[in-house]
Amino acid sequence: MLLAEFTFGQALLVVLEVFLFAAWIVILFTILTDLFRDHELSGWAKAGWVIFLIFVPFLAALIYLIARGDGMRERSIRHEQEIRGQVNEYIRETAQGSTAADELTKLAKLHDAGKLTDAQYEDAKAKVIT
């Protein structure tokens, strides 16, 4: 029976191989992401790196990480700062709430519905305007 010949040591080797393969895929995606994030590199240079990564993957990845490792870090930090800035801007816009015109519209609707008296409406309007 084939299953009886599959030992615990072989199972551990399979787990190690799967882990190393997943790590290799992550490294390749990181390199490709960085490669296409770099706007200073020409299209021909990017194509050359991709071809090099396809035909000599381990050597190409090693050379890329050695030659362009500092740039990878800088591009990654710059990208994260851009994303953080966009998120902060979105949060600021969302947290600001409504504008004065929106508040006046809400007050007018409440006044028209009869939920606010004339005096309450005028007081609330004065607070929004100032």
Annotation keywords:
elongated, 2 domains, about 0% strand, mainly alpha, about 130 residues, 5 helices
What would a concise description of this structure say?
The chain has 130 residues and is an all-alpha fold. The protein has helices at 8-37, 43-55, 57-95, 100-112, 118-129.
Walk me through the structure.
The chain is mainly alpha-helical and 130 residues long. The chain folds into 2 domains: 3-97, no CATH class; 98-130. It has 5 helices and no strands. It has helices at residues 8-37, 43-55, 57-95, 100-112, 118-129. α1 (8-37) crosses α3, α2 (43-55) crosses α3 (57-95) and α4 (100-112) runs antiparallel to α5 (118-129).
List the helices and strands and how they pair.
Layout: H1 8-37, H2 43-55, H3 57-95, H4 100-112, H5 118-129
Helix pairs in contact: 1-2, 1-3, 2-3, 4-5
Termini Cα gap: 86 Å
Q: Which segments are poorly predicted (pLDDT under 50) over 5 or more consecutive residues? A: none
As a percent range, the share of helical residues equals over 70%
Largest sheet: none
Order of helices and strands: HHHHH
